[in-house]
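Predict the 3D structure for this chain.
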Amino acid sequence: AMTLAGCGGSGESTPAASTILSGTAAGGAAIIGNVIVTDSLGATKSAAIAADGRYTIDVSGMTGPFVLKAAGQVGNTSVTYYSAATQADLGGTVNVTPFTNMIVSNIAAQMAETYFSDSKHIANIGALITPTALTNAQVALKEKLQPVLTALGVNSSIDLLRSSFAADHTGLDAVLDLVKVETDTSTNIVTLKNALTSVVLGSDNVTTSTDDKQVVAATDVTTTAATDLQLVLAKLDAFAKLFATGIPSTQAIKDSGTFDTSASFMMSGKTFDQFATEMST
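Done. Predicted structure below.
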């Protein structure tokens, strides 16, 4: 019996297939909210998004492909972004961002937020979300954004749907900071703007594929612009941290290095001392 028990083959076992969907849910900053996953049979599961934008959901018992919906707050703005995954994406990275929302919208030929608000479309997930459809839509969007990606030094091999990134204002997150995505559900047109200047970089009519790869005009997007935005965000983050544990003193605001405390300070005609007194009371 002992001999037989020891003769079962090579001793190697096939690793169990992953049942985990994970990635980053962000729109320039991490989304404060939840990710909801819906499978091809209409079953759902949800999980909270961590402070750094990461989410993880165990979809065991569910049937791919999947549609993901991230809903919550980015700053003081309420957002809802969609993404999608196939069974093959389990164990890998699947992001939920304004760019993945464009990818899903182009596949659905309608704004994702409108398409999936109608329960009858849930039954179409299995046919709609295919590896080929996801790849083609992701490649098309990357080609559209390539001038921006190049200007910001983002590697050309990046996958807007599946490449891991951190919500830290670098890499893909820097692109999400600088490229503002505006959707019009009445016209099904996405407008891409420079977040600093509001200059229109390009657009995408999600109902047609003829403009999917039409590249944006990135003459207004430079590494300097991204750096400027990062400096602005760093100042805002530093200011917010002053209030992390309570109301800071006037001296603490002055000593933080966040503001120009000279006579050049500008805030609706107030001096720095007047502003600091308001903030500390």
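The beta strands are 20-24, 32-39, 44-48, 54-58, 66-74, 77-85, 179-184, 189-194, 200-205.
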